[in-house]
Structure formats: C-alpha cells, structure tokens
Design a protein that fits this description.
Layout lengths: L4 H20 L7 E4 L3 H15 L5 E4 L2 H9 L13 E6 L3 E2 L5 E2 L6 H9 L1 E9 L12 E5 L4 H12 L6 E3 L15 E5 L7 H9 L4 E4 L1 E2 L5 E6 L2 E6 L1
Parallel strand pairs: 1-2, 1-3, 3-6, 6-12
Antiparallel strand pairs: 4-5, 5-11, 7-9, 7-10, 8-9, 12-13
Helix pairs in contact: 1-2
Length: 238
Amino acid sequence: MPFNREAIAMDADAQKRAAAARAVEFVRAGMRLGLGTGSTARHFVELLGERVRGGLDVVAVPTSQATKADAERCGIALTTLDETPELDLTVDGADEIAPDLSLIKGGGGALLREKIVAAASARMIVIADASKLVATLGRFPLPVEVAPFGLGATRRLIERATGAKPAQLTLRQRSDGHAFVTDGGHWIVDAALGRIDDPKAMAHALADVPGVMEHGLFIGLAQIAIIAGADGIKIVER
C-alpha cells in the first residue's frame, strides 16, 4: 500500500502542535518569554495567544520578524532584550535533538537571534516531533551564519573548523536564486557534515572563525525537550 504523504505531513504537524500545547503548560502569569522561530514554534505562539486572550499576562521577545508578526496577530505583548534583558523561559523548535539535549538549529534562518534569546533565558524548552530525535547530530546540515564580506576566505576557515570538503558547504539561496539574507543582514552557509562526533569542539572551532556571526550548534542551552510522537508526549530533562 503506498504512503499517503498528506496524512504523514498532517501527523507530523499534529505532533508539533501537541508538543507546543504541553509547553504552554509551563507558562505562568507575569513571565518574560522568548518566542522561537519555525513551524513548531509557530504552534506555540498561536496556543499562547489563546491563553493571552483568556487573560494570561505575559510579555515576550520574538526571535525573528516572522515570529514578531505572528505574536502581534495573536495579541501577545512584546518587548525587546534592551528593555527586558533577562527572560524566564524560551520555547523554540529544533532541527535535531541529541540525547544530551544538544541541538542543531537554524533551518529557519534565525539562529543568531534564537541563540541570543535562549542565552538570556533562565530556562529553554525545545519542542519537536519525534523525527527530530537523533543519536548523533549532523544528519541535518549545520547552518553557519556569516558576514557577506570575505565569504570565500570565511568558507575556507569553516572547512578547516569542520573538516568539511568544499562541496559540503552550500550558500543558502532563496527561491529566486539570490542569497538568503537573515534578519541581521547576514548570509547562511549550510554544512552537510553527515555526523558531528564532538559538537562542543566544533562549536568552539567555528566561534573562532572571523566572519562567522553564529553557528547552529546549541550546546548546554536547552534544559527540557518535549517530544511528541505517535505514542504520545515524552519529556526529557537535562
């Protein structure tokens, strides 16, 4: 019997929403929140908006212009890290989640702001469907946000830092063929590494590369993962 691709997609989306719904239960009145970016985080914003319209008093920092627009549409009061430099909780999705809650993020292109907001938070909850769980990070191409200036030189240093061959590094493009530009005005190089045996060492190596604004390895930031699968919700704590 052939797979029903639409049904599979709906199942994954339902799992994302289930994880988001469980994360909303961690929110308390008066909290200062970080709002992630991406399809799973969007479910959280929508469900949080329902509670806000029901009287929940919170304020939030969005991690992208897209999330800001979603939050405004949902009636969530917004602030900035300049006005509110310390947050209670950030809820965000991930492209990959390792057993120790190390993450790859940045598939949506907001990794720099996502990491800044997560680092400003007392706790980070990552929400995902079960497909994002991996034994070892690296199957999902690692996003590396770079300055447009000196891209050729920066790429060579990224190759050294990651052990990647030139063909494994791809400049992310929009559908019209132009370079994808982040909200911060940077570009993204996606590194198809296949496997990252020592994420912490690679994170340090990439952080030392001039021209790298940020990378998608989130190490030690997430305390809780809420994973929704066909068998229900699993909560993993670090």
